[in-house]
Amino acid sequence: MAQYRASESKREQFRRYLEKSGVLDTLTSVLVALFEEPEKPNNALDFIKLHLGAAGPEPADTEALRTELADLQQKCSELMEENKELRSRLMQYEPSPDGEAAE
């Protein structure tokens, strides 16, 4: 019987923790939104994830972003190399600190 009370006490503590941190209110509002949805979604779990903000970008979006990232990193590398080359060429025409052109 004492084990049953300890278990109830832990459950009650956990319930208060969830209530205090706002989890119960958030879950309730998401479930109410699902209940009030005129056309129920095929996947209720996806609906809940979406409304909780847990659903990340779609896989197609992720792949497109990765491709764009790779392209931009390559472009950045090319521009850095071009910048380095142009600085080197510019240094040929920059006057040296004593006022003469570098040769």
TrEMBL record:
Its main location: nucleus. Residues 62-89 form a coiled coil. GO terms for cellular component: nucleus. InterPro entries: AMY1. It is found in: Nucleus. Gene3D superfamilies: 6.10.250.1060. GO terms for molecular function: transcription coactivator activity. Belongs to the AMY1 family. This is MYC binding protein. It comes from Haplochromis burtoni.
